[in-house]
Amino acid sequence: MGPLDAAEAGSPGAFAAEPVVGLVAGRIAAVREGMVAAGVDALVLRPSPDYRFLGGREGAFLVVTAEVVAETDDPASVVPSGARRVGVDAEMRVRELFGLAIEAEFVPASAVLAPLRLCKEPGEVAAIRRAVAAAEGVLAGVRELSWFGVTEREMARRLGLLLVESGCEHVAALRVAAGEHTARPSHVPGDRVINPGDAVTVSVCGRWGGYCAEAARVFVVAEPPEDFDAMYSVVPAAYRAGLAAVRPGVPMSEVATAVAEVIDGSGYGRYASPHVAHGIGLGPDEGPRPGEDTVLSAGMTFCLEPAIHVPDLFGARLADVIACTESGALPLGSLPHTLHTLDH
After folding, report:
1. What are the helix (H) ranges across the chain?
2. Among 70, 109, 148, 284, which is most buried by a count of CB atoms within 10 Å?
3. Which of 330, 265, 325 is closest to 304 using CA atoms?
């Protein structure tokens, strides 16, 4: 059974590094070419998406040089003594950097690794699809929970339990925003009580089977706030416009423009979120990003997330993982954008 077969067969946990194992040798070769081009003598990675990309499993650090790939607790013993430039993981902590005891110029390892991680292999896309299914399964269970009179924080705790029960290995973000809090793009669940007449945005982002997925949907409690339906209808329309713009050869900025044009045309343009997409894969937030003007290629995966936030009133955000294919956009999930009512 190959990676694609396994992707269709097992639970999200069945993916743990399976799509990566057969690819590591080729990735190492490409990384070494990139190191030469960037003038980097060694890479030192801590457990992170880059570490997992190159097959890291249990070591405190993964070191890559022109001749050696090693998991080790002592990177200084592996990095060549004459190394002048060492690429380090973007997630490296300051105390870890000081603890390396390597006399060299430290530069971001992402200069070498980020371009290689942009396009996913078929087995990786299949793994991300299964992670999406797990995330959507959590959102599908939202309507079965009791929402009346419960705080955002408590609902986030309950959803967190569902994430863990689904096999989620790491919760990157879990947001529950009710009423006026839906107008805050980065709201942290608090003590706000959820009541009939509230809109509620629920967003989950975590890692299943080594790969990340994010999904967000909007609900109303008992009945929608006044004028909410009209505002909400713009968000899925903007999503569809962004989806239609996705194809190889198109800059990510054009996808963002397609989303913005719909929201601008609705009259809500000044309330549109400037962040309409971000890449996703081994990490929850990676390339491609609209601001970097990356040109889309088949195999790129990203979260399309149009949103409108009207200060002090309400907001709405949808998020789905999309794969760019030779024939255009391929949503990796199937959860509809219907504005469901929470009735208990």
Report:
1. 3-9, 18-21, 24-38, 49-53, 94-99, 110-117, 122-140, 152-166, 228-245, 252-266
2. 109
3. 330
Please name the residues in contact with 270: beta carbons below 8 A apart, sequence gap of 6 or more. none
Give CA angle at 266 (262, 267), nearest 5°: 125
What is the model's pLDDT at position 268?
98
C-alpha–C-alpha distance, residues 120 and 332, integer Å: 13
Query: Which two three-digit tokens encode residue 143?
Result: 């309507």
Pair type for strands 307-310 and 277-279: unpaired
| Cβ contact 342:219 at 8 Å | yes
pTM of the prediction?
0.90
Handedness of CA 14, 335, 301, 189 (dihedral sign): negative
Where is 160: in which H helix or E strand?
helix 152-166
| pLDDT for 18 beyond 80 | no
Q: Could you tell me the two tokens for 239?
A: 């999503």
- Rounded to whole angstroms, the Cα distance separating 257 from 305 reads 13
284-309: pLDDT as tens digits = 999 998 878 799 999 999 999 999 99
Sheet holding 320-325, edge to edge: 277-279, 301-304, 320-325, 328-331
Quick one: which of 97, 74, 79 has its CA closest to 40?
79
Residues comprising the chain, all counted: 344
> Exposed, middle or buried, 90 (CB in 10 Å: 0-12/13-18/19+)?
middle
Residue 292's pLDDT is what? Answer: 80
> What percent of the chain clears pLDDT 90, i.e. is strictly above it?
85
* Alpha helix ranges (H) inside 176-251: 228-245
Q: Give the CA-trace dihedral at 92, 93, 99, 103, to 10 degrees.
A: 50
- Is the preceding peptide bond at 288 cis, omega within 30 degrees of 0? yes
Top pLDDT among 23 and 247 is at 247
pLDDT at 121: 93
| Structural element, H or E, at residue 32 | helix 24-38
> In angstroms, how far is the first alpha carbon of the chain from the final one?
45
Instruction: For residue 136, give the nearest of 294, 287, 332, 284 by alpha carbon.
Output: 332
